[in-house]
Amino acid sequence: YDTREDQIAFFGKVNMMINCGTAVLTLLGTGPIVQSIGVGYSLLILPIGMLLCIGALCLHYSLGMSSAALVLVCIIAYGLNSPCKEMLYVRTSREIKYKAKSWSEMYGNQLMKLFGAQMNLWVNREAAFCTPHCFHSGATAGVTGAWVVLWFGIAWRLGVQHRQLEKDDAIVK
Question: Quick one: 169 exposed, middle or buried, by C-beta within 10 A (0-12, 13-18, 19+)?
Fold first, then answer.
């Protein structure tokens, strides 16, 4: 974009799409999705969506694809994954809920942003010597794939534990 105003307008449009999409998903989709497949399986949608979006970005690296991937992943994260994370806390004691939420919100989120930024800094950094081919799709896909496998496994296990707690009508203390 040529001017700062154009950049601001573009980011404003992207944020508006994220907010509108999240509102629509939250109002019309989150409840039916969770009711039909459960909290555990709903938690698997974000890692799958992330993998598909990064895969699409690796195949067609552009600002448009990057923006579309960002919008889609943010809608899933805010509109489905965040409510599902909150539903997991129903089966925990107040102390566990406090510790888990504070850790995940303060450290978990910040660490993931840090790791993502480091990946882009060291692997996909824009520099004069590599322009216009600074994005390394193989390394990005490999790191993302490994991360999503770990993430998927953790989400799967949380889902299994949550289903068992629901079945037993138990609370983690």
Answer: exposed
Q: Which of 7, 45, 140, 34 minimizes the C-alpha distance to 88? A: 34
Instruction: Report how far residue 12's alpha carbon sits from residue 135's, in angstroms, rounded to the nearest whole number.
Output: 25
- What is the C-alpha separation between 39 and 31, in angstroms, rounded? 10
Q: CA 46 to CA 39: how far, in whole Å?
A: 12
pLDDT in tens, 131-147: 778 899 999 999 999 99
Task: Give the ranges where 60-133 is alpha helix by DSSP (H).
Answer: 63-76, 82-88, 94-103, 109-122
Collapse the DSSP code of 92 into the 3-class scheme (helix H, G, I; strand E, B; otherwise coil) and give the result: strand
| pLDDT tens-digit map of 53-84 | 999 999 999 999 999 999 999 999 999 999 99
Q: Domain-by-domain residue ranges, the chain?
A: 4-168
Query: Residue 34 gets which letter from DSSP?
Result: H
Interior angle at CA 17, CA 68 and CA 9, nearest 5: 90
* Predicted pLDDT of residue 164: 94
